[in-house]
Amino acid sequence: MQTMMKWMAAMAFVGCANLAVAEVAPDALVKQTAEDVLAIVKQDKDIQAGNQSKIFALAEEKILPNFNFDRVSRLVLGKAWNKATPEQKAAFQAEFRTLLLRTYATALSKYRDQTIEYKPFRAQPGDTDVKVKTQILQPGGQPVAVDYSLEKSGDGWKVYDITIEGVSLVTNYRSQFSNEIRQGGLDSLIQKLAAKNQESNK
């Protein structure tokens, strides 16, 4: 798969809101939630047929709540985040969240009998920033290495980055966005994200 498609596949396997995440170890959380999402996709014929409203609803309910959007936004924008106004931060997060929602929804629609292999989890007691390593096994294809970076905060473990075969989702977006910010500023980036999201609605 191409890099973005690999990210999409990985994203489809992260999710499930309303768990007592503070009481679940990060590796157990990834496994439990991935299996929950896969079970829903396997059982729902409408999702398998590409029903957009159902796919978006599943991504909104089960996937996005497990991400720390504040940290993702800070990492993706880098220095531009510190210079942004509160209004710019809010506008960027809204558009970036919508962009990721549609990316995750596309991932769910691409699901075709992939399975997940979970690597041994290594962490020290008291760690608040960890990686959960997995592989996506594809029929007829090579395994895809996927690392989930999670941090523990007041409301439990949250994902803040996904690394596919050594390529970070955050780093990839940061490179794209920094180029746009250098050329036209943060407002230009926000406008382009909004336009892209609007185009996706058509």
Automatic annotation (TrEMBL):
Record keywords, A-Z: Signal
Keyword Signal set for record: yes
Annotated signal sequence range: 1-22
One Pfam family, short name: MlaC
Gene3D superfamilies in alphabetical order: 3.10.450.50, phospholipid-binding protein (1.10.10.640)
Domain of life: Bacteria
PANTHER family associated with the record: INTERMEMBRANE PHOSPHOLIPID TRANSPORT SYSTEM BINDING PROTEIN MLAC
Protein name per the record: Toluene tolerance
Upper classification of the organism: Bacteria, Pseudomonadati, Pseudomonadota, Betaproteobacteria, Nitrosomonadales
